[in-house]
């Protein structure tokens, strides 16, 4: 499919570029041009770091609205937009993952549409048509896109139970949810594993033997 980037994503790209972060504009929302060799990999730089907190407006859905509220769960922070056709495929698959993992998994779906392009009702309509119940957020001031720097729509950040970004999925292809499912299972098993037993304490050093008292010289009194 060949079409020009949507106005929303063009604005998002301008925000990220103004912060000196390379963001590739998609030809259609699912694709992206290769990043310049000197540019850091978008989104991937967060792997191993604490996931930035989200201060986006709550639109609809069930479950936690912030990473703090989701503490103790594995979280999918998903960046999406109403003009993104792959997002229409990924949303139902993420709902299947929520249903599969129950209370151990939360999805925070962050819409990047500009307020002048869509209404809150349109975001709700998108979620309803996709049949999802997880939390829908709206990054109206584009603070989240600056912190996460998603390369394409959608981009999913997989956050472990301690709030650290462990995986990034830029774009969505059929079967992507199975990769994410395996990652979630591994993170849940890792989080649920009992702490390793501490190494046995070293035995205290043996006490030194008592010092010997020297015998008196001469073996006794001398004769007169």
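^ Assign residues to that structure.
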């Amino acid at each position: 499919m060949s079409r020009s980037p949507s106005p929303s994503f063009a604005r998002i790209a301008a925000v990220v570029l103004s912060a000196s972060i390379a963001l590739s504009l998609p030809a259609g929302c699912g694709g992206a041009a290769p990043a310049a060799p000197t540019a850091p990999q978008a989104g991937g730089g967060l792997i191993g770091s604490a996931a930035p907190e989200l201060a986006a407006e709550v639109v609809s859905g069930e479950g936690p609205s912030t990473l703090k509220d989701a503490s103790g769960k594995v979280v999918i922070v998903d960046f999406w937009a109403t003009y993104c056709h792959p997002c229409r495929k990924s949303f139902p698959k993420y709902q299947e993952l929520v249903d599969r993992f129950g209370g151990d998994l939360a999805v925070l779906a962050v819409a990047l549409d500009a307020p002048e392009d869509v209404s809150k009702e349109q975001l709700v309509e998108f979620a309803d048509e996709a049949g999802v119940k997880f939390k829908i957020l709206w990054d109206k001031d584009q603070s989240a896109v600056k912190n996460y720097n998603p390369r394409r729509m959608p981009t999913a950040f997989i956050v472990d139970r301690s709030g650290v970004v462990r995986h990034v999925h830029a774009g969505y292809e059929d079967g992507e949810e199975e990769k994410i499912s395996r990652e979630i299972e591994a993170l849940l098993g890792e989080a649920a594993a009992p702490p390793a037993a501490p190494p046995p304490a070293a035995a205290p050093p043996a006490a030194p033997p008592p010092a010997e008292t020297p015998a008196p010289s001469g073996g006794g009194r001398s004769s007169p």
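The first helix runs from residue 7 to 18.
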